[in-house]
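Reminder to self: tokens first, then the designed residues, so the page reads top to bottom the way the pipeline ran.
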């Protein structure tokens, strides 16, 4: 996706940039001073204090809806951890309001002349789509594709490489039939610094935990066997689809549009081909959190 487009209005309307009575952003409840140089995003609100407990100091705690934000200090740097909840729709809220906090003058609702770029790492959990990926391993999403549609609400264009991946993905019949796909790449600097020794691959971001990820409880799936087989066999420039999750494609595409750097790393708690689930998921997640904080 293209980088850093400029919004045309000189002043944003009150109905477009909605603020609370204390001047903070509508959903996250944050002010500019609540956002550190480095940002960690987790899905589960209960994971926020697990991460912030490893900070040297916590300066601010905010809780609103599913969004919990802790900002503090780690090795002399300002760092923020916040929960997004589930899905690219929530990532749309989180990325826009994070960016607004640092790049829009909230009192006047005007875009700042000098923009600030954030480093953002999402620490998630995921299910592996290949039987050779062990439980408890860490996967870094070097690229992701989504069929949620969120980026198409914005003026955006995929890069040549992203467009090639999106086109290749549409050879999977089920994906082509259900939505207009898009693709986005991780920030190469963050990928090298944080995930140089992790498993890397293509992440499939879906807008559904059950049907979209090939899970059927009481409602039969349309193309379960065909979908899973084609995903397992898919390859693009030597990389395979490694895992399902629900946020990364939106995180990558929106971050690039806004001029931020983003990376997703996930602890593998399930292996879908083997139908296995980790017997102690909290240990895997805590190990990943510590590793990311060491390298971030």
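Designed residues (296 positions):
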């Amino acid at each position: 996706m293209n980088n850093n487009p400029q919004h045309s209005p000189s002043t944003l309307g009150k109905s477009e940039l909605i603020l609370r009575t204390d001047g903070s952003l509508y959903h996250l409840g944050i002010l500019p001073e609540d956002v550190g140089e480095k940002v960690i995003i987790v899905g589960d609100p209960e994971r926020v204090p697990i991460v912030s407990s490893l900070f040297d100091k916590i300066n601010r705690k905010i809780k609103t809806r599913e969004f919990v934000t802790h900002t503090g200090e780690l090795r002399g740097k300002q760092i923020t951890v916040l929960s997004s909840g589930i899905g690219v729709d929530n990532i749309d809220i989180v990325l826009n309001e994070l960016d607004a906090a640092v790049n829009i003058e909230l009192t006047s609702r005007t875009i700042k002349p000098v923009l600030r770029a954030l480093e953002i790492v999402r620490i998630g959990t995921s299910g592996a789509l290949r039987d050779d990926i062990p439980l408890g391993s860490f996967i870094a999403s070097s690229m992701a594709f989504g069929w949620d549609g969120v980026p198409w609400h914005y003026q955006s264009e995929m890069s040549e490489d992203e467009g090639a991946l999106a086109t290749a993905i549409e050879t999977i019949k089920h994906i082509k039939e259900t939505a207009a796909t898009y693709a986005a790449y991780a920030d190469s600097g963050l990928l090298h610094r944080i995930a140089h020794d992790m498993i890397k691959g293509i992440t499939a971001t879906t807008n559904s935990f059950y049907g979209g990820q090939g899970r059927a409880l009481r409602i039969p799936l349309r193309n379960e066997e065909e979908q899973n087989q084609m995903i397992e066999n898919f390859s693009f420039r030597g990389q395979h689809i490694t895992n399902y999750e629900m946020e990364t494609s939106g995180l990558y595409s929106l971050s690039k549009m806004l001029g931020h750097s983003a990376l997703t790393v996930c602890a593998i708690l399930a292996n879908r081909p083997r139908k296995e689930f980790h017997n102690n998921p909290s240990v895997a997640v805590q190990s990943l959190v510590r590793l990311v904080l060491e390298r971030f």
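Helices lie at 48-52, 88-103, 160-169, 173-178, 188-195, 224-233, 248-258, 281-295.
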